[in-house]
Amino acid sequence: MWIDTHCHLDAPEFEADRDAVVARAREAGVQQIVLPAVAAFDFDTVHELAHRHGFAYALGIHPLYVMQAEAQDLTLLADRLHTWRDDPRLVAVGEIGLDFFVPGLDAAVQLQYYTAQLQLARAQGLPVLLHVRRSADQLLAGLRRIPVPGGIAHAFNGSEQQAQAFCDLGFRLGFGGTLTFDRSLQIRRLAASLPAETLVLETDAPDIPPHWLYKTAAQRAAGEGSRNEPAELPRIGAELARLRGLGPAETAALTAANARAALPRLSAL
Fold this sequence. Notes:
- By secondary structure, this protein is an alpha/beta fold.
- It has helices spanning 18-28, 43-53, 71-83, 107-124, 136-145, 160-168, 185-193, 217-221, 233-244, 248-262, and strands spanning 2-4, 30-36, 56-59, 90-99, 128-133, 151-154, 171-175, 199-201.
- It has a single domain, classed as Metal-dependent hydrolases (TIM Barrel).
- The longest helix has 18 residues, at 107-124.
- This is TatD family hydrolase.
- GO terms for molecular function: hydrolase activity.
- It comes from Roseateles subflavus.
């Protein structure tokens, strides 16, 4: 059984054929998917999709959306987390974090929302799904100030020392389509060498397509799409298996167990 620990099934890219996307994922052997929210406008959407399809969800405000967020969005998040606190499909607070790559984002505002959401996660006893983009050290500093029950560092692309620091705080590390590219030397090295219990798999669909779906900028400009799907997870997992010298079934079992350890409510699903 494969678990996709990060998929934005609510994204508009899936509007036309969402049920078919889910069917393809299940046919490929992906039996569980975690749907993280990115802003207040999709809290109810990911909740509804998770219940409709038997998946899991997380609630949070993504760092790329904090500049459009308002104070009442945090109030709404706190309310939803309280209202749905006994929902077994609510597995984490997320997607939250910091992004110091995209220009034009106010670092102070990001830190404000990150800190507030860590406090909510701690109050509810929930793990977090972290957006990590040139921000690992700052995220770690926040986690040391406001400890939470672990979680997943999504799309991890840091150093071995940063990886170990996240793991020391009870986190697993998310790997996806990027590890399928030969030129992703650091990510492939980490995926091959980190302790097996630290690894989980994700697609981040419709984003971060694996190499077999990748389109160049010129191709995209010409109208060729490169939408990622959760059905691609087993093939991504097979590449992780090859890097580590494992079989696909062993890799599926290993990463699924790690996902349940990172997000304990998955075990009941």
